[in-house]
Design a protein that fits this description.
The complex is a heterodimer of chains A (484) and B (95). With 484 residues, chain A is α/β, with parallel strands linked by helices. Chain A is 37% helix and 12% strand. An eight-stranded mixed β-sheet of chain A has the order 4-6-5-10-11-9-7-8. Chain A has a three-stranded mixed β-sheet with strand order 1-3-2, sandwiched between helices. Classes of the chains: A alpha/beta (484), B mainly alpha (95).
Chain lengths: 484, 95
C-alpha cells in the first residue's frame, strides 16, 4: 500500500481491501517512525486524521465516494486548515491555529480526502532548501546529509519516504518543482490563477501558486482535478470550465514538438544533470516527439527580476505580521513602534528579514522606477520570449535545477548561491505559465535528477500527457530511497 | 551603488524590524551581494516595454455590494495576542 498509486488506493478502498481508517493508520505509523530523523512534518494530529478517515469510510460504504475519498494527503503548512496549527514554518505563527479552511483544503475535504498532517517548509516559503524553517531543516531521504530542496521540502520528503502518498505544495519561484527534482518526485505548478490562493499564506501574490506533489504524473492529474477551480475570494482566480486533467494521459506523443532552450544548457549546469536530461530528451524522441531548438534570450534576467518583484510583494504582504491580530508578540516593549520592531525582529528568521529589507528598499521613494518598474518590464520580455517559443513548440523541456541535492548547510551562508538554484524554474513563475518536474535519472551520489516541462497557459493536460507517457516508458519515478 | 550602514538601518526602520549594530553590518554585506545580482537588470534596454504585474491581465473582478460574511469576531480574535471586549489591545498611542 505504501507504494500504490492514488488510482490503486482508490480501487482498494472501493473493493474494501483496506479501509480509509487502516490506510491513515498505516501512514501515521510510518510518520511516527521516520519523522524524528527526517523532520518532514511540523504537525500531526492522529485524532483529527482518523476521524476524517472514519467519515470517509462511511461515505465509501454509502456509495458516494469520489476518486480521492479516503486517501490521506499531507499539506504544506502554508495552507490554513481550520483547527490545525498553521505556522508557515515561522516563529511568527508558531501559535497560530487556523480559523478557517483554505480553498485548497476545502476542496480536498469536499472530495473526502484525509488530512494527514502539515508539512515543514522554508519560513514563509522563502528558500530553496527547507533549511530556514523555525522547526529545523528537513532531511532528504535519498541522503540525509542533503537538503530535499525547498520551499516545499517537507511535502517532498514525506512522499519520497512513503510517509504520505501525495501532498500539496506552493511554488513562487520553483518551490514545488525544485524539491520534486531533488527528491525524485513529480510536482506541478499550475497556470497562475488555476488554483485559488484563498487561505494560502501570501509570499509574493503575483507569483504564488499552489499545486500537487506526488510520485507520478497520473497521481498529479487526479490531485489537480480536485485542487483547480474558480474561487471568487481570490481576485486573480480564473473563471473557466472545469476540465479532467487525466483525459489525455494515454494519448501517444507522435508529432509533439518539444522545444529545448539553449540558455538552460549552458554554464552552471552540472554535467551529471545535463546527461540525464539529454537521455530523457532522446526517450521523448523515441516516443514520437520532435525536438525543436528554441531560445529564451531574456531568461538569464529572470533571477535578478525575481529578486526585486518577490521581495517587494513579500515586504507588503508580511507587513500584516505586527503582533496585533495574530501570531507572535514580543514580551517586552516600550511603546507601539518598539512592539512592532521587536515582534518582527524576534518572529522572522534571517532570510525572511533579508527579503523584507530588499522589498522595502526597492519600493521606497526614489527607487521604484529603477527596481520594481524595471523588473516588471523584464517580466514582460520573459513572457514574450515564451510566447514566441510556443509558436514553434508545444512544450519546453530542460533541467529543473542546475545540480542534484546539495549538502545541508552548503549554501545557507550565501544567499546569492541559494537563489541561483531556481534559475530554470523562475521564468515560468514570472510568465505565469504551468510547469512541472518529473524524475529522469540519477546523478552524482546516486541522487535524483528532475526533468522540467513548461507548457503554454492552461496546457496542464498536455504536460501531464507527455509526463505520463515518459513514465510508462521509464521507471525513474518508481524508484525509492533505500534504508527506510 | 553599495548600501551604506546608515541606509541599512533606515530600511530596517521603514520595515519596522529591529536590527542590532552587529547584524546591520552582516546584513549590509549580504544585501550588497544581492543588489549586485539585481543590478544585472540594467544590462537590457526596456524602453517602451509595457510593465507586467501578473499573468491574468489587470482588470479586477467586481462583485455586488452586499453582505457576504457573517460576524466571526470572537473566533478571529481568539488567536490575537491580547484582546478585550471585542477590541485588540496595543500599547497606548495617545497620551
Amino acid at each position: 500500500m505504501l507504494n500504490a498509486s492514488l488510482k490503486e488506493l482508490s480501487a482498494a478502498l472501493g473493493q474494501k481491501k483496506i479501509s480509509s481508517f487502516e490506510l491513515a493508520r498505516l501512514f501515521l505509523e510510518r510518520i511516527r517512525r521516520l519523522n524524528g530523523a527526517l523532520n518532514a512534518f511540523i504537525t500531526v494530529d492522529e485524532g483529527k486524521s482518523l476521524a476524517q478517515a472514519r467519515a470517509a469510510d462511511v461515505r465509501i460504504a454509502r456509495g458516494a465516494a469520489q476518486p480521492l475519498t479516503g486517501i490521506p494527503i499531507a499539506h504544506k503548512d502554508i495552507f490554513l486548515a481550520k483547527d490545525w496549527l498553521t505556522t508557515c514554518g515561522s516563529k511568527m505563527l508558531s501559535n497560530f491555529v487556523g480559523t478557517y479552511d483554505a480553498h485548497v483544503i476545502e476542496r480536498f475535504n469536499g472530495a473526502g480526502a484525509v488530512i494527514l498532517g502539515k508539512t515543514n517548509m522554508d519560513e514563509f516559503a522563502m528558500g530553496s532548501s527547507s533549511e530556514t524553517s523555525f522547526y529545523g531543516p528537513v532531511k532528504n531521504p535519498w541522503d540525509r546529509n542533503c537538503v530535499p530542496g525547498g520551499s516545499s521540502g517537507g511535502s517532498a520528503t514525506a512522499i519520497a519516504a512513503r510517509m504520505a502518498p501525495a501532498a500539496t505544495g506552493t511554488d513562487t519561484g520553483g518551490s514545488i518543482r525544485q524539491p520534486a527534482a531533488l527528491s525524485g518526485l513529480s510536482g506541478l505548478k499550475p497556470t497562475y490563477g488555476l488554483v485559488s490562493r484563498y487561505g494560502m499564506i501570501a509570499f509574493a501574490s503575483s507569483l504564488d501558486q499552489g499545486g500537487p506533489m506526488a510520485r507520478s504524473a497520473e497521481d498529479l492529474a487526479l490531485l489537480l482535478n480536485v485542487m483547480a477551480g474558480f474561487d471568487a475570494r481570490d481576485s486573480t482566480s480564473v473563471d473557466r470550465d472545469a476540465e479532467d486533467y487525466a483525459r489525455n494521459l494515454e494519448k501517444p506523443l507522435s508529432g509533439l514538438r518539444v522545444g529545448v532552450p539553449k540558455e538552460h544548457f549552458g554554464e552552471g549546469l552540472a554535467p551529471d544533470v545535463a546527461q540525464a536530461v539529454e537521455t530523457a530528451l532522446k526517450e521523448l524522441e523515441k516516443l514520437g516527439a520532435k525536438r525543436v531548438a528554441i531560445g529564451l534570450p531574456n531568461s538569464g534576467l529572470s533571477v535578478p527580476a525575481y529578486y526585486v518583484i518577490a521581495p517587494a510583494e513579500a515586504s507588503s504582504n508580511l507587513s500584516r505580521f505586527d503582533g496585533v491580530r495574530y501570531g507572535h508578540r514580543a514580551k517586552e516593549y516600550r511603546d507601539l513602534a518598539d512592539m512592532y520592531r521587536r515582534t518582527r525582529a524576534e518572529g522572522f528568521g534571517a532570510e525572511v528579514r533579508r527579503r523584507i529589507l530588499i522589498g522595502t528598499y526597492v519600493l521606497s521613494h526614489g527607487y521604484y522606477d529603477a527596481y520594481y518598474l524595471k523588473a516588471q518590464k523584464i517580466r514582460r520580455l520573459i513572457a514574450q520570449d515564451f510566447a514566441e517559443a510556443f509558436e514553434r513548440c508545444d512544450l519546453i523541456v530542460g533541467p529543473t535545477a542546475p545540480t542534484v541535492a546539495f549538502k545541508l548547510g552548503a549554501k545557507a551562508a550565501d544567499p546569492v548561491q541559494m537563489y541561483l538554484n531556481d534559475i530554470y524554474t523562475i521564468p515560468a513563475n514570472l510568465a505565469g505559465l504551468p510547469a512541472m518536474s518529473i524524475p529522469c535519472g540519477f546523478g552524482i551520489g546516486n541522487l535524483p535528477v528532475g526533468l522540467h516541462i513548461v507548457g503554454n497557459y492552461f496546457a496542464e493536460a498536455k504536460m501531464l500527457n507527455a509526463a505520463h507517457q515518459y513514465q510508462k516508458a521509464t521507471d525513474w519515478h518508481a524508484r525509492q530511497p533505500g534504508g527506510l | 551603488m553599495p548600501l551604506s550602514l546608515e541606509e541599512v538601518r533606515a530600511i530596517a526602520e521603514l520595515a519596522r524590524i529591529g536590527i542590532s549594530d552587529a547584524e546591520a553590518a552582516s546584513v549590509q554585506i549580504q544585501l550588497n551581494d544581492i543588489f549586485e545580482l539585481i543590478g544585472q537588470m540594467q544590462m537590457v534596454n526596456t524602453e517602451g516595454v509595457e510593465p507586467m504585474s501578473h499573468a491574468q491581465g489587470s482588470a479586477l473582478r467586481l462583485r455586488d455590494d452586499e453582505v457576504t460574511e457573517t460576524d466571526q469576531r470572537e473566533l478571529y480574535q481568539s488567536v490575537a495576542p491580547q484582546h478585550e471586549a471585542g477590541l485588540y489591545l496595543v500599547p497606548k498611542v495617545i497620551e
